[in-house]
Amino acid sequence: MLQVISDIDDSIFKDKKVFVRVDFNISVNNGSVGEDYRIRKTIPTIEYLTKRGSKVIIASHLGRPKGFQLHYSLSPVAKRLSDIMWKSKVTFVNDCVGDSVRKIIEKMNGGDILLLENLRFHKQEEINDFEFSKQLASFADIYVNDAFSTSHRKHSSTYGAAKLFDLRLAGFNLNKEVEYLSMIKENPVRPFTFLVGGVKIKDKIGALENLLPKADKVLIGGAAAYTFLKAKGVETGNSLIDFEHLSWATKALSTFSEKIMLPNDHVVSSSSKDIYASMIKGDIPKNMAAFDIGTETAQRYSNEVGCNGSGTVFWNGPMGLFENGLFANGTISIAKSMALAFWRGSKTLIGGGDTLEAMKKAGVSEGEVSHVSTGGGATLRFLAGDDMPGISALKK
Ligand code: ADP
Ligand code: MG
Fold this sequence. Notes:
Number of helices: 14
Mean pLDDT: 96
Distance between the termini: 10 Å
Strand content: 15-25%
Bound molecules: adenosine-5'-diphosphate, magnesium ion
Strand order of the largest sheet: 5-6-4-1-7-8
Shape: elongated
C-alpha cells in the first residue's frame, strides 16, 4: 500500500520543504505551452500542500535535451502554472541543483511554490547518479511523487533521491493511477471489457498477457486486429501485420477463443493517403489495406461497450487510422460508447496518447471517463506487472 499525502497528519506539512516530482513533459512551441492537462492534473496535490503551509519545490523533465537547450526550458510551464495557481506565489529557477537553487529555497515561505528547471539538463538525472540524487534530496524534508508516467524509470528524481527521504509519499494523481490500474489488473468490476487497438502489439504484449485471462470480453480493432485475422487464416491484403507476433496471436486465439471478438467488416483503401475508401465484409482484397473497422463491427463493439452493462471497460489504442477522417468512424463510435458506458455507471478507463487524442476528436471530455491514464509507457508496464522503480521507491 502506498502512503498518500492525505494519510499524513496536516500539521506535518506546515513550513516543511516538500519536493514534488511531477510530469510536466508537455509540448512547448516557441515559448508557448500547448495542451496543459498534465499541469492541471497535479493541481490537487500542489494545492493540498500549499494550503497546509508547505514550501513546494516542483521538479520535472521536459523532452530529451542534450545538456541545456532553451527550447526544453520549463520556464513557459512555470508561467502557465502561475496563471493556474494565481493565489500562490510561483517562482522559477533556471537550474535544478546548485547554490542558486538553495538560496531561493532558503527565502521561501510556507505556501510558496518553486519550479526547478528541467532535470534532464543534467545527464546525471537519467543515470540515477548518487551525488545528483543527494543534491536533490538535500533541498527538502518530504518527498512526494505525483508523476506516474515516469515511475517506470529508475532516475535520480524518481528513485535515487526518493530513497534518501524518510517520508516518501504518493500524490493524488499517482495514487489514482495506481488504484484504477490495480483494479483492472487484479480485481476488475465485472463484466470486464477490454478494447485494444492501435499498431504495436510489441508494446502491449505484456499488458495483453495479463489482461486476456482477466477480461470477460476482449474486442480487438485497429491494425492489431489484422495480425489476429491473419493468424486465423483470413486474407488481410496489405493491412499492417505484426509478423513477429503472428504465432503469439494464434496461441491467444486458441486459448481465449470464447472471449475474443474480431472485426467482420472493414473500411479498405489502396493507401492511407487515398481519398476513396470502401466498406467490405470478410476477406480484404490483395491490393487493399484495412484502415478502420466497418460500421457493423463498430456497432457490435459499441453495443458491447455501452449497452451490455459492462462493469469495467478499458480502452487502449484507436480502432483505425483516425487521423484521416475517412477512417475515423470506428474510433469515434467507440469513444462515444465509452461515454455512454460511463453515464450508465460502468468504470471506464482510457489509456494511450493516441487514444486520448481520438477521444477528444470524438468530442468526449475528460469528465466523461472515470479515469484517463496519461501514463503511456508506464501504464502498459504497470499492467504488464513490470517493476516500477518510482512506485517501489515510495514503499518502506
Ligand atoms: P496509443 O497511443 O493510444 O497507445 P498506438 O500508438 O498503439 O495507440 O496506435 C495509434 C496509431 O495506430 C494511430 O496513429 C492510428 O493511426 C494507428 N492505426 C490504428 N488502426 C490502424 C490501421 N488499421 N492501419 C494503420 N494504422 C492504424
Ligand atoms: Mg501511440
